[in-house]
Write a structure and sequence with these properties.
Blueprint: E1 3-9, H1 14-32, E2 40-46, H2 51-61
Parallel strand pairs: 1-2
Length: about 80
């Protein structure tokens, strides 16, 4: 039962979010041989000024062993 959470800067349209969720679902289905009914995708909008404290430090730095695609930036 894959559940994917995407955290990104706020400001994307509902159409963009729906398309992203659709594409992520397809990738999960193909890569993991999972049925569509078992995949869920959540999207969390984060204000740019909150990114460091709400996402980068806890989710990226604090879980570096779980990050399979690391970002190419360092906001610290």
């Amino acid at each position: 039962m894959p559940h994917v959470i995407v955290k990104m800067y706020s400001g994307r349209s509902e159409q963009q979010k729906s398309k992203l969720a659709e594409e992520i679902t397809k990738a999960v289905m193909t890569t993991l041989n999972a049925g569509e009914e078992s995949v869920s995708v959540g999207i969390e909008d984060i204000k740019p000024e909150d990114w460091l404290e709400k996402v980068y430090k806890p989710d990226i730095l604090g879980n570096s062993e779980k990050i399979y695609k690391k970002p190419g930036y360092d906001p610290l």
